[in-house]
């Protein structure tokens, strides 16, 4: 059962969050959820794809590896890229949604996370009980992330109406002969996108969807870099 509680100075004055990035810290994930407003920051490092879930929901994802548990950006206790996707950066925190209109959203923490420490790491509260700059930044990131997730569904719905999404299969063969086939993901059909008429393009622009779409398409060039990371890992593994 998840051990999620709202952060407060009375119970969590001694809690610290360890900054290391590693498998032991729970970072061994092949992808994480993202949203259109984050695409600009992501496209310099990660391929951005879509995934259709069993319940029909479609998610925007930043890709880190080619199989479950593979994160090719983990290196010597650090994240080997200038930008860490927000869904990873805010761990082990999450948004606690209000139970009534009179309540504010709360910062919730997973007390079972291996990232929690008491002797070292970033403090959540000052000795006075005031939130530290670290916690205030987490709160800001959570609010931005939450709003971004809510906005993403409308973006994806628009792409579906324009029939721009198509399945994507990626075959990866590294120099050591290791083969992986990545299936279950979708991307934007570039041919259909570039064939859109002026009215459709204007609609995308008005909604703020044109720029993130270009960013997503640009991000696909990172697939070759991700394969290169995998080859380096296997050659030195």
Offer a concise description of the structure:
The protein has 8 helices and 13 strands.
Helix and strand sequence = EHEEHEEEEHEEEEHEEHHHH
Approximate shape: globular
Number of individual domains: 1
Low-confidence stretches: none
In angstroms, what separates the terminal alpha carbons?
35 Å
| Percent of sequence in beta strands | 15-25%
Supply the helix-strand structural class: alpha+beta
Count of DSSP-assigned helices: 8
Rg value: 20 Å
| Mean pLDDT over all positions | 91
Biggest β-sheet: count, sense, barrel?
A: 5 strands, antiparallel
| Spatial order of strands in the largest sheet | 3-5-4-13-12
Task: Please give the share of residues in helix.
Answer: 25-40%
Number of strands: 13
Keywords for this entry:
5-stranded antiparallel β-sheet, single chain, globular, 237 residues, alpha+beta
Describe the 3D structure.
It is a single chain. The chain is of the alpha+beta class and 237 residues long. The chain has one domain. It is built from eight helices and 13 strands. Strands 3-5-4-13-12 form a five-stranded antiparallel β-sheet. Strands 1-9-8 form a three-stranded antiparallel β-sheet, with helices on one face. It has a three-stranded antiparallel β-sheet with strand order 10-2-11, with no helix packed on it. The longest helix is centred in the middle third of the chain and has 29 residues. The radius of gyration is 20 Å and the shape is globular. The two termini are 35 Å apart.
């Amino acid at each position: 059962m998840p051990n999620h509680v709202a952060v407060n100075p009375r119970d969590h004055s001694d809690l610290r969050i360890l900054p290391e990035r590693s498998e032991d810290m729970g970072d061994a994930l092949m992808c994480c959820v993202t949203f259109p407003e984050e695409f600009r920051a992501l496209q310099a490092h990660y391929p951005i794809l879509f995934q259709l879930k069993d319940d029909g929901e479609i998610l925007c994802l930043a890709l880190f590896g080619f199989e479950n548990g593979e994160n090719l950006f983990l290196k010597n206790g650090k994240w080997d890229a200038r930008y860490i996707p927000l869904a990873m950066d805010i761990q082990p925190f999450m948004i606690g949604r209000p139970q009534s209109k009179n309540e504010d959203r709360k910062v919730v923490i997973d007390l079972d996370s291996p990232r929690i420490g008491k002797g070292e790491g970033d403090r959540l509260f000052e000795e006075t009980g005031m939130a530290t700059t670290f916690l205030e930044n987490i709160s800001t990131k959570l609010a931005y992330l939450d709003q971004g997730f809510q906005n993403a569904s409308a973006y994806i719905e628009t792409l579906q109406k324009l029939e721009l999404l198509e399945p994507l299969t990626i075959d990866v063969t590294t120099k050591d002969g290791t083969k992986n086939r990545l299936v279950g993901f979708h991307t934007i059909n570039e041919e259909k996108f570039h064939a859109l008429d002026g009215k459709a393009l204007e609609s995308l622009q008005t909604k703020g969807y044109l720029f993130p779409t270009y960013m997503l398409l640009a991000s696909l060039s990172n697939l070759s870099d991700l394969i290169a990371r995998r080859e380096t890992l296997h050659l030195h593994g």
